[in-house]
Amino acid sequence: MSNSEQAKIWKCDVCGYEYRGSEPPEMCPQCGAERVHFKSSASPVQRVVIVGAGIAGVSAAEAIRDDKSNATVTLLSDEVHLPYSRMNLTRYLAGEVNLDKLDLHPQSWYQENQIELYLKSPVTTVDPKQKIVRLADGREFAYDTLLLTNGAHPFVPPIAGAQTPGVQTLRTLEDADAILAAMAQPINVVCIGGGLLGLEVAGAISRRGAKVTVVESLAWLLPRQLDEAASHILQAKIEAMGIQVIVGARTQAFVGDGRVRAVQLEDGRELPADLVVISAGVTPNLDLARQAGLTVNRGIIVDEHMRTSDPQIYAAGDNAEFHGRLYGLWIPSKKEGAIAGYNAVNHEKIFNEDPPSARLKVLGIDLLSVGQITLQEGDKVLAQQTNGNYASFVFHEGKLVGAILLGDTSLAVLVQNAVDAHQDFSQALAQGITTAEFMQLLRN
Q1: b/e per residue, 341-355, with b = 16+ CB within 10 A?
Q2: 194 φ, ψ to 5°?
Q3: For residue range 125-157, what is the model confidence (pLDDT) as tens digits?
Q4: How far apart are CA 79 and CA 350, in angstroms?
Q5: Domains and CATH numbers, the chain
Q6: pLDDT of residue 12
Q7: pTM for the whole thing?
Q8: pLDDT tens readout for residues 95-120
Q9: In this structure, are residues 382 and 433 in contact, taking their beta carbons and an 8 Å threshold?
Q10: H or E segment at 415?
Q11: Is 8 exposed, middle or buried (0-12, 13-18, 19+ CB in 10 A)?
Q12: Residue 399: its H or E element
């Protein structure tokens, strides 16, 4: 089945229920009236096709239905599961959430909102001239407006032995299940990458009873979110949990005959490993965009409306690049998807950039990192470390542009709001306010 035939609105003359499709339903799902009671509208219905059913794609579908648009919505997913919360995969690994709690919506939601969801339906071709997308199995779907929300895939560094069985990434539910299957008995696990995902994976696996080592090639953990002082405090907290941390070490090879058994570092050290999980970032999925002739850089170039270089095609989520930036985060992807969805049905909503923010979810460590962390010329910083807690605030021309809260995050909402607003504290800074005084000022 495809949507190549132009869809219509069919209205039940008994109860007024409206159905979208090329043919009326056999029975009205609202009042039970038979097919003969449906009359079609004269005007064709806009066809919206969404490629990719992650948070950006589902948020786009939600926005279209929130708009009460008559458009037909076709949501194409290459996965076998209902769209789920990728953000919670590490919580699933840790045993904090069950499989049935991962779904973004139950099956019934798609039916009730007349969203045609197709699973196991990878798209291989976008034809912008004919306005058709083609699937691997030959099916075709016509569109009036197309949304590319097909995300990204894990980046695997060119390390010898990266394809050895037992070397994993975490992006999909299948990846998570494969990691859990490998942990049926206590094992040694090496997590490559000390970023957000790498630390969350390490924490989740450690809670399952594995002996875990984190290897980060840069000088400290979370180099994009923390300054060096905060990272040292975080590392001490993680090591206190029994997780070994090695920083400033590059991986040379994954060693094993038939299955991985060790990780070899460039300095000659060899770490025993029954399982390796690589968390080295993601690469946007750009093949469809390139094939469709869209303008791409590191991602698909979009404007503030999430519109690509083709006015009938939008992009959102991990594959969209806005003002030279790829967010790769849940909240911006959700927001971008909603903006694209609304605009696909004739709105002109604008995506406003927010300062990047990050929080740890599974390590049991309270951490907020928001906005600019690295200092630029002329910036001022207020920082203090007390009782294992750390707070740092970065000011540019007197305005709060970034902050780190580690341990005590009771000011998180106030700090987030102040950074989002670029709140001006020039007068307080000129008067020589201390870090403790500034934190009290925020509370007041």
Answers
A1: bbbbbeeeeebeebb
A2: -110, 35
A3: 999 999 999 999 999 999 999 999 999 999 999
A4: 30
A5: 46-153+283-344 (3.50.50.60), 167-280 (3.50.50.60), 366-443 (3.30.390.30)
A6: 87
A7: 0.87
A8: 999 998 999 999 999 999 999 999 99
A9: yes
A10: helix 412-420
A11: buried
A12: strand 399-406
Q: Residue 315: pLDDT above 80?
A: yes
What three-state secondary structure class fits 169? strand
Under the banding of pLDDT at 50, 70 and 90, the label for residue 1 is very low
Tell me 173's DSSP state. Answer: H
Q: Which single residue is written with the structure tokens 């209205």?
A: 11
Q: Report which of 238, 233, 270, 239 is spatially closest to residue 253, judged by C-alpha positions.
A: 270
- In sequence order, the β-bridge partners of residue 88 are none
C-alpha pair distances (Å), 119 with each of 77, 78, 101, 153, 179: 5, 6, 19, 18, 23
Instruction: Kindly provide the residue ranges of all beta strands, DSSP E only, lying in 179-338, ordered along the sequence.
Output: 188-192, 211-216, 244-247, 251-256, 260-265, 270-272, 275-278, 282-284, 300-302, 313-315, 320-322
Q: Record the tokens describing residue 335, joined without a space.
A: 């927001």
- CA–CA separation, 345 vs 62, rounded Å? 12
**Residue at 251: amino acid letter:** T
Query: What length is written for the chain?
Result: 444
What per-residue confidence (pLDDT) applies to 21?
Answer: 77
Nearest to 50 by CA among 128, 139, 123: 123
Token pair of 368, please? Answer: 């907020």
